[in-house]
Amino acid sequence: MKILWLFVLSISFLSGANAAKVVQLDDKFAESKNCKACHLHLVKDWQESWHSKSHFDKDEYFRKSIKYYSRKTRKSLNGVKVECATCHNPRISVTSTDINYEIEAVLGLDKGSKVNKALKADALHEGINCVVCHNIDKIHSDKDEKIRGINRVTWTKSGLMSGPYEDAKSPYHNVEYRDFMSKNSNQLCFVCHANMSSVKNIMFSNMEKEFKSDGKMCVDCHMGPKKLGVASTLKIDDGEAKKRMIRKHGFKGAHDEDMIKNSLKLSTWQKGEDVVIMLKNPQPHNIPTGYGSREILIELEYKKGSNKIKKEEISLTTHYKDRRKRPTIAHLAKTMSKDMSVPAQGKKVIKVKKVDGASDVKISVYYKLVNDEVHELLKLKEKRWSKKMLITRKSLKLK
Ligand code: HEC
Ligand code: HEC
Ligand code: HEC
Ligand code: HEC
Ligand code: HEC
Fold first, then answer.
1. Can you tell me the distance from the alpha carbon of 348 to that of 279, in angstroms, rounded to the nearest whole number?
2. Which of these, 107, 204, 287, 299, could form a disulfide with 364 (CB 3.0-4.6 Å)?
3. Ligand 1 neighbourhood includes 115 CB (under 6 angstroms)
4. What are the angstrom distances between the C-alpha of 31 and each of 91, 125, 132, 396?
């Protein structure tokens, strides 16, 4: 028990030291429905994105991870929700919990507490919504790289939108230009998409470190190219909506089959008795990247004439172990296995002994959002988590 209290104390001390300043949002701006009258097209894009599903009620994988984490660390469920909200729900009005809250929660005295109220706020259900990104005033890139999400930014006053234009005006809200909304927008993404570490300080993902770009920015692929359109449909330009270069707000990623398809290039040839498989990654970040426990599956189907004779599977994924060396989720890892991802703008070469007597082999490369180990640990039910999404496929004649 003593160890537990010390552990809880040390977390609350850490988050206390970097406590973020909360800025209360006016109801006029808190939710995306308030933006629809003039930015409906952008709201619709965003609703399709996983940023709008980053709240625990909307993402089964996230929700079950929180429960698992709480069970294993004996931290209260709400305490864990607040901890993860740092990046998943940054407009929460309570940014850390302390030992007093943990005691109240154990005793069941937390019902009317500030923490419980904060977690019930309607706007939180929107996850990473408009006033997360567009209410960032400053990004503190000079802070220790472990400090992320809420604790890495300061907010604008409620009603002041930071944006990509230097000359915008709106009757509904104030606007100000920020370079992290235009030429430096990778900085905005790295507020959360970087340096994900476990309770034991194992860094299981760091997109900022692995990023190797030939000039493309995150927004070029995840919000699409700039196109002529309107930022707002309000008739502010001589009775017309003002024409602007805009981007989509879809933030499509690994949950989307179109993004996955052809994200890696496959070449294959025979060398002596081996089948050589080369995966090249033209993207500026590793594949898989981001949250731990994603998986690439390479399936080899051997044929002799038209008969299927054997199937083999190679898994590229990372496994995490807790302090007792049992499998666990990334956030609780004490150790992790070798990173198996295909590096940014790099390649991975795999050799397999060919099956005797085979005349052909079909090689299919798939992507899975969760590997079997973690899928099992969390007992995920929705289909999407076990679905094999095709990246690419090729056949090879064997000699
Ligand atoms: C994850 C961060 C993020 C979220 C969430 C987000 N935006 Fe944006 N938004 C951006 C970035 C980055 C740009 C600038 C893109 C560029 O020009 O390179 C932008 C641009 C804009 C623009 C200028 C026009 C355009 O499309 O380029 C408007 C208006 C806007 N956002 C409104 C919204 C609204 C309304 C919402 C909520 C439905 C929203 N944004 C949610 C990051 C975000
Ligand atoms: C009554 C209409 C109206 C509503 C409601 C509205 N906006 Fe705007 N917004 C505008 C207009 C007009 C512009 C300027 C467009 C232009 O200059 O092309 C604008 C511009 C923006 C910009 C770009 C600012 C810049 O400097 O680049 C952002 C970001 C933005 N709005 C976010 C939001 C968000 C978030 C909401 C909801 C909380 C919202 N707006 C609600 C009318 C509105
Ligand atoms: C406030 C923190 C935060 C910021 C800022 C942020 N993201 Fe995210 N992003 C997240 C979280 C959390 C998720 C995971 C949501 C989930 O799956 O439940 C996510 C998911 C994604 C995904 C994955 C979608 C999928 O289908 O797999 C993409 C792509 C993405 N973000 C791109 C961006 C880009 C580009 C930017 C910068 C313009 C950005 N994000 C800024 C926190 C953030
Ligand atoms: C040249 C295009 C390109 C650029 C630039 C790019 N990405 Fe991606 N990204 C992709 C593709 C394709 C995928 C889908 C394959 C995959 O999941 O790895 C992806 C996947 C993702 C995912 C989901 C990964 C997962 O497995 O959950 C996230 C998050 C993401 N990108 C964020 C970013 C951020 C943040 C940046 C900028 C630092 C960025 N991307 C820059 C092409 C790009
Ligand atoms: C440093 C910011 C940050 C913190 C803190 C954080 N996350 Fe995340 N999380 C992200 C980002 C960014 C993504 C999206 C990565 C991607 O799609 O590749 C993500 C994605 C996830 C996913 C995958 C969701 C999906 O739909 O595939 C799970 C599960 C998850 N986080 C669990 C947690 C848990 C549990 C906590 C708290 C113990 C937590 N996260 C805290 C940034 C964070």
1. 5
2. 299
3. no
4. 11, 9, 10, 53
Type and span of the H or E element at 367: strand 360-368
- The whole-number pLDDT of residue 1 equals 47
Residue at 121: amino acid letter: A
Q: Can you tell me the mean pLDDT for 16-45? A: 89
In contact, 36 and 43? CB cutoff 8 Å? yes
Q: What local confidence, expressed as pLDDT, does residue 290 receive?
A: 76
Report how far residue 206's alpha carbon sits from residue 216's, in angstroms, rounded to the nearest whole number.
Answer: 18
Q: What is the dihedral of CA 58, 61, 62, 64, to 10 degrees?
A: 100
Confidence of residue 18 (pLDDT cuts 50, 70, 90): low
Q: What is the distance in A from the centroid of ligand 1 to the CA of 243?
A: 16
Residue 307 scores a pLDDT above 60? yes
As given in the structure block, the two tokens for residue 353 are 């002994």
Res 15 pLDDT > 90: no
Distance from residue 39's CA to the centre of ligand 2 (Å): 7
Ligand 4 binding pocket includes 223 (Cβ within 6 Å): no
Three-state DSSP at 355 gives coil
CA 102 vs. chain centroid, Å, equals 28
Q: How confident is the model at residue 387 (pLDDT cuts 50, 70, 90)?
A: very high
Give the mean pLDDT of 381-391.
97
Which pLDDT score is estimated for 10? 46
Instruction: Say yes or no: CB of residue 253 within 6 Å of ligand 5.
Output: yes
Fold of 257-397: Immunoglobulin-like (2.60.40)
Reading across the β-sheet that carries 320-321, which strands appear in turn? 327-328, 320-321, 335-336
Report whether residue 148 contacts ligand 5, using a CB cutoff of 6 Å. yes
What is the whole-number distance in angstroms between the Cα of residue 226 and the centre of ligand 5? 28
Contact 368, 295 (CB under 8 A): yes
Output 12 or 135, whichever has higher pLDDT: 135
Domain ranges of the chain: 2-246, 257-397
- 214 sits in the region (left: phi over 0; alpha: psi -120 to 50; else beta) called alpha
Ligand (nearest to CA of 380): 5
Amino acid in position 65: S
Q: Is the CB of 66 under 6 A from ligand 5?
A: yes
Which ranges in the chain belong to alpha helices (H)? 2-17, 27-30, 36-48, 60-73, 77-88, 99-107, 114-120, 130-133, 185-190, 207-210, 218-222, 257-260, 372-378
